[in-house]
């Protein structure tokens, strides 16, 4: 097994999440403290915790990423629109929407009307703020579907494509990340790579940043078109190693 290292200069591009389904105040405070102490880029929390976390992060530079979980597809388009607007009004800096699986396999020549309406609602709700969509990319089997998603996200001005939510699938491996970065490099879509040490293809987190630098160019990474999402447990494990 490889050791996991992370260059300190990449800390500001880390999006931290608790890594558990059941949140409580203790877990959230620990999440916030770890992010603030290490000057990380952002933290992800379920939408209902936004007000509390916003108060804890108010005096820091850590961004608050509020997550709307619609993996089961039960939240209506109207409610998605209202939730995004509400979360930004309640202090969120970014909103992440976990997409239903039926949207993962896209035929660019025959886009479902529901997906069109869904992305339009998200685009209109975000205004000048930023949103990211989680696609559970390890479920995607065809490169054409990935290409279609990146194209659509760019058309509707979605800011980030996240490779997985951390709830329903492992992150993409390095080959899938390479494919996603290649598709995204000519668009305005940033990539948020979900790092998970239980993934079959283990690699050093730095490899993801090196790959992004190589494909997107260092300027794009500096402009935060690339980030890595990491659980609190994994990040603390990384801090337990020597950083290079």
Topology record:
Elements: E1 14-17, H1 25-37, E2 42-46, H2 50-57, E3 63-69, H3 77-89, E4 94-98, H4 113-126, E5 130-134, H5 143-155, E6 160-162, H6 174-184, E7 190-195, H7 205-216, H8 218-222, E8 226-231, H9 232-239
Parallel strand pairs: 1-2, 1-8, 2-3, 3-4, 4-5, 5-6, 6-7, 7-8
* Beta-strand residue fraction: 15-25%
Q: Can you tell me the residue ranges where pLDDT is under 50 for at least 5 consecutive residues? A: none
| Main pleated-sheet profile | 8 strands, parallel, barrel
Query: Average pLDDT, to the nearest integer?
Result: 86
Distance between the termini: 18 Å
Give the overall form: globular
**Rg, alpha carbons:** 17 Å
Strand order of the largest sheet: 1-2-3-4-5-6-7-8
Sheet/helix structural class: alpha/beta
Q: What is the helix fraction of residues, given as a range?
A: 25-40%
Q: Using DSSP, what is the number of strands? A: 8
What is the count of helical runs? 9
Strand and helix order: EHEHEHEHEHEHEHHEH
Kindly describe this structure:
The structure is a single chain. With 244 residues, this protein is of the alpha/beta class. 40% of the residues lie in helices and 17% in strands. The protein has nine helices and eight strands. An eight-stranded parallel β-barrel has the order 1-2-3-4-5-6-7-8, surrounded by seven helices. α3 runs parallel beside α4 (113-126), α5 crosses α6 (174-184) and α6 runs parallel beside α7. The radius of gyration is 17 Å and the shape is globular. The model has no long low-confidence stretch (mean pLDDT 86).
């Amino acid at each position: 097994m490889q050791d996991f290292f992370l260059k300190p200069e990449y800390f500001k591009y880390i999006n931290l999440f608790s890594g558990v389904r059941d949140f409580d105040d203790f877990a959230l405070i620990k999440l916030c403290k770890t992010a603030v102490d290490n000057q990380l880029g952002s933290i992800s929390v379920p939408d209902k915790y936004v007000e509390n976390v916003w108060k804890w992060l108010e005096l820091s530079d850590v961004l608050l990423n509020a997550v709307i979980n619609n993996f089961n597809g039960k939240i209506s388009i109207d409610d998605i629109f209202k939730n995004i607007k509400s979360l930004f009004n309640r202090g969120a800096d970014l909103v992440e929407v976990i997409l239903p699986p039926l949207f993962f396999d896209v035929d660019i020549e025959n886009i479902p009307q529901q997906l069109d309406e869904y992305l339009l609602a998200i685009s209109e709700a975000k205004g000048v703020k930023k949103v990211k969509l989680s696609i559970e990319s390890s479920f995607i089997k065809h490169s054409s579907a990935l290409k279609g998603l990146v194209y659509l996200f760019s058309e509707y001005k979605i800011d980030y494509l996240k490779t997985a939510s951390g709830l329903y699938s492992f992150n993409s491996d390095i080959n899938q990340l390479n494919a996603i970065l290649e598709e995204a490099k000519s668009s305005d879509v940033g990539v948020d790579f979900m790092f998970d040490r239980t993934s079959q293809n283990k690699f050093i987190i730095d490899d993801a940043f090196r790959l992004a630098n190589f494909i997107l160019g260092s300027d794009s990474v500096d402009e935060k078109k690339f980030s890595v999402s990491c659980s609190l447990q994994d990040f603390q494990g990384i801090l337990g190693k020597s950083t290079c």
